[in-house]
Amino acid sequence: MLKNSTCIFDLDGVICDTAKYHFKAWRRLANELGFDFTEEDNEKLKGVSRTESLKLILQWGKKEITDEAELERLADMKNEWYLDYITRMTPEEILPGVKNFLDELKKKKIKIVLGSASKNAQIILDKIGITDYFDAIIDGTKTTKSKPDPEVFLLGAEAVKAKPKECIVFEDAQKGIEAALKGGFYTVGVGNSDALEEAQIIIPGFEYIEYKEILEALNAGTK
Ligand code: B16
Ligand code: MG
């Protein structure tokens, strides 16, 4: 029976929509290299690390680049453009209902943890003004393995001295759900994607959703 458990949040797609900025920056890179890709393709990059994303995009454009220095240069270039967008983010970009949900957790003294693949997570949290909510922040600067490896969530749980079975992971990406399930966490899929069906429960977002309803649904084993 799950009681007042730690909540581990993914960032992009759960707390805010940075995917649109990733898309713009990656697309600009693809265009400079002479090809394009769609927003539908971009779905496949959600939760995927920067290096892995670059490899996928180059495959789509049939570009064979193996030189490590060149790969790094391209990833850095994309990140500079991405930084241009995220450094202009404001608290209005927090997804609907998230702030209320975090407030409810704080009131209940439930630990709040970030589990994101992004190396830019700290900048984003600062810009949208919610860093102080977090008891621990695990992001792409602290991990060595990307989702679907559970490392990011295991480090998150460890940071607040919780066991995976005492934590709920909120994720918008299939790779993130897979990572959380591998690590033995409870999982809540956030969004409308078909790719979330492995999650124990799925919510469209945090608007009108209370933590106690999530707990009840997880304990009842309902979808
Ligand atoms: P960065 P999440 C992920 O964030 C994004 O979904 C993914 O598209 C991105 O490539 C990855 O972060 C790395 O981001 O380039 O900022 O290090 O969903 O794990 O919060
Ligand atoms: Mg995400």
Radius of gyration: 17 Å
- Count every beta strand, where a strand is a DSSP E run of 2 or more residues: 6
Strand content: 5-15%
Element order: H for helix, E for strand:
EHHHHHEHEHEHEEH
In terms of per-residue confidence, which ranges show pLDDT below 50 for 5 or more consecutive residues? none
Individual helix count: 9
Largest sheet: 6 strands, parallel
Query: Helix/strand/pairing class, anyone?
Result: alpha/beta
Distinct ligands, ions and cofactors found in the model: 1,6-di-O-phosphono-beta-D-glucopyranose, magnesium ion
Query: Can you give the helix content as a percent range?
Result: 40-55%
Which sequence of strands runs across the widest sheet?
A: 3-2-1-4-5-6
Termini Cα gap:
16 Å
Q: What is the average of the pLDDT values?
A: 95
The outline comes out as globular
Concise description?
The chain has helices at residues 19-32, 39-42, 50-60, 68-86, 98-107, 121-128, 151-159, 174-182, 211-220; strands at residues 6-9, 112-115, 136-138, 167-171, 186-190, 201-203.
